[in-house]
Each structure stands twice: as C-alpha cells, then as structure tokens.
Amino acid sequence: MRSKNARGIARRDFLRVGTVGGLSLAEVMRLRESCAAESGNTDDINCIFIFIIGGMPHQDMWDLKPEAPPEIRGDFMPISTPVPGVQISDVLPQIAQVTDKLAILRSLTHSKSVHQDGYHTMMTGKEPNASLDRNNKNNNQHPSLGSLVARLGNQGALPPYISLPNFIDSGGPSFLGPSYGPFVIDADPAAPEFEVRDITLPVGVDAERSLRRQAALQQINQLERQVDSQIQALDSFYQKAYSVMTSRRAKEAFNINVESARTRESYGMTSIGQCCLLGRRLVEAGCRFVSIENGHWDTHRKNTKSLRELLCPAFDQAIPALLNDLSDRGMLEKTLVVVSTEFGRTPRINDLLGRDHWPNAFSIVMAGAGLTVGQTIGATDKQAAAVIDRPISPADVSATILKVLGIDYTQVLHTPLGRPVPVVDEGQPISELFV
C-alpha cells in the first residue's frame, strides 16, 4: 500500500531533480536560500569532518604509553615530530611530519560504549537517551553538526552539507527537518566508475525533453497547491536545482577525474584518500560542511596487524596530503579539518590480540581555520585509561566547530512543538585552540 502524508495525499513517484538521501535537490536549494536570508553571518570558513568508524585506538596512534607493560602499550613505538616534545606512533610516519599543522586532543571523554550511541554523541555533541533506535542510521535525537551548519550557517555555492561516500550514522537533522539533511554522495570516489548521480541529466534525456519534464513537474506542483493552499510554491527552487545540474562549476566540483594523476596519487587511490581529495574540491567550490566516513576500525582482534597492514597506511597518506594540498592552495586558513571517532579502545589488549570499546578516554585531531596548532591538549594516565588533565566533552568539540564556522553555539532552537533545545548543551569552545 502506498503511504500517505498528513493531508491524505499519496506520495507519488514523480520526477525528482536530484536526490539528497530521499530529499530533492530542489529542497536543498530552497534551504540554502532561506538560510542566507536568516543569517547575518559572513564567515566563509568551511569544514571537512572525517569520521573514523569503529574507534581509533588512541594508545596506538596519538597517545602512546611506552613505559606501560606490554599488554597495555602494544606493539607500536613513539616517534619524534617537528614539534618539540610531541611524539606519535611509528604507524603514522607521514602524519608525524605534519604535526606542526595539528592540534591533538588527547582528553576526549564520554560515557557511551556502544557504536551507535557513540556515533550520535560525536556527530551531534549530545549523548542520546535510552530510546535511541540503534537499527536506524538516521536516528538523530539532536541535529548533527552538518545539519546545524546547514540550518544556521552562511551558505555557499553548493548544498551546504555533503556526506560521502555514504550517509554517516547519526548524521541527520532531527527536528530541523529533512531539508537540513546531507546531500549524500552514495559512491566511492576511489572506484574507477565513480560518478555523482543526480547532478547530470540522465542518458537519453536531452535539453528539450528535460524542459518537458520540468513543465510536467510544475503541473504536479500546481495540483498539490490546489489540494493544500499552505504548500509553498517550489517551482523556483526546482529551477535552481536544474541550474545546479547544468552548472559548469557544480559539475567541475564533483568531477574528481579532472585532477592530475600526480595529485590523485598523492592522496592515495584509496577510499579515504579520494574522499579527502573530493572533500577539498567541494569546500573549494563552496560547500560549508563535508563529512567523510572511513570505516572498519573496530579492532576487537588482531589490532596490530589491522592497523599496520590495513588501516593506517591509507589514513597516514591521506591526512597529510589533504593538509598540504589545502596549505599549498592557500585554503588551510579557511578550512577546518577534524578527524573524529566515536570512542577509543581499551587499555589492555584482549585474548584475541585486539582492543575493545573505551569511551572513558580517547583522542581526536583538529587542524586549519586559524587554530593554534602544533600542540597537544589534555592528558591521560599511564595506561591511557582515564583523563587526568583537561577533560574535553563532545559538546566542547561541537561548540568549537560551530564557533570556528562563525555560528552562535549559545543560541536555542525550537522543535515543531515549540520545545526549546540548546544548539550546544553545556559545551564550551576549547580555549587552547584560540590562543
């Protein structure tokens, strides 16, 4: 049976001019215009938010404990970096060379040890309550950072919030509504056949045929307005979506194939490498918030082998390439780069030679956007098990990101029922990043 909306109108499978996770691209364009009208914000800093799915093992990457017993310290050794006194893991030799561009936050902490709860906590800055639907990726009880930026930030030339190579769990808009969800690039840019769907006319649909489709869509909109006089006229926004589809600039932003072989290879022909390259292209073209998922870091077994052979090589190549490329292009001061994760890993290595979930203490990384970098912030104990200096909450991270992007993190939003909801609940920007 076809579903019906609150007015009893069947949801029709009519032509859409591009889709955004089930949302028409036209509605994203409508969102962009309304945001621009609401916001007096003129800041043009953008964000590339890289989310490591599974939980980065902080004691094997960012916060080594070489004096701890073998079952705690693991198999990796600290190596020196260009920043005096700052060491990271020998499994990240290329990242070690760009630590002068990084702020390593070693004292993240929260209470959620289940993946889905951790996603929500770090993607939104707010821990979920017990009613979180863990079987639904779009399960937000609070708007994600990308959706907050789409709703509150000054807009650029592209959809304000883009997610790749898929929709990230808890990356949705919650009560803000679907118009503030991400434009999802549901494809891996490292794949030889990669293309972004819905920004070009379908094969066999020439300009004349496309105009006929637009006329038909206008008739559908007219019929819908006759049923419900409250529906806003969307024709102009569909026209803008069509303009994006036919815009040379938009096509170029999504077309990673125009990059030189040398540039693509510098990032690595891997999912995270090419996603980072495409992320750079998107913020360069005007997207305010690009979220990138990099998965399979849930190292319950064979932690050393997984990091050394499967996970860290691509990561270690992609992150420095992104930072250096942004710097070389004069973009790093206007681009916030965040490398986040849902939690850390247990201090003690388990019987399967892996590490389990550990939200009590873990590390994330920030760079760019004029932040004070070349430093570590916070500290954990001798086993990397507990924060002993400068605890940082996910809400603090959210407040920091929003502040950098020129968004008032202290404001209060309201649900459709009028319930007040703080944008950031009790979080404060990390002051050491703004010295």
Structure description:
With 435 residues, this protein is an alpha/beta fold. It has one domain (40-201, 246-434): 3-Layer(aba) Sandwich (Alkaline Phosphatase, subunit A). It is built from 13 helices and 18 strands. The strands form 6 sheets. It has an 8-stranded mixed sheet with strand order 8-7-9-3-10-13-6-14, sandwiched between helices. A two-stranded antiparallel ribbon has the order 1-2. α1 crosses α8 and α9 runs antiparallel to α11. The longest helix is centred in the C-terminal third of the chain and has 26 residues, at 303-328.
Q: Evaluate the radius of gyration.
A: 22 Å
Rounded average pLDDT: 86
**Whole-number count of domains:** 1
Roughly how much helix do the residues carry, as a percent range?
A: 25-40%
Provide the β-strand percentage band.
Answer: 15-25%
Span between termini: 59 Å
Instruction: Give me the CATH fold name.
Output: Alkaline Phosphatase, subunit A
Weakly predicted, low-confidence segments? 1-24, 31-42, 201-207, 227-240
Quantity of strands, as a count: 18
Categorize the overall geometry: globular
Largest sheet: 8 strands, mixed
CATH superfamily: Alkaline Phosphatase, subunit A
**Which structural class do the helices and strands define?**
alpha/beta
State the CATH architecture.
3-Layer(aba) Sandwich
State the strand order across the main sheet.
Answer: 8-7-9-3-10-13-6-14
CATH class: Alpha Beta
Count of runs of 4 or more consecutive helical residues = 13
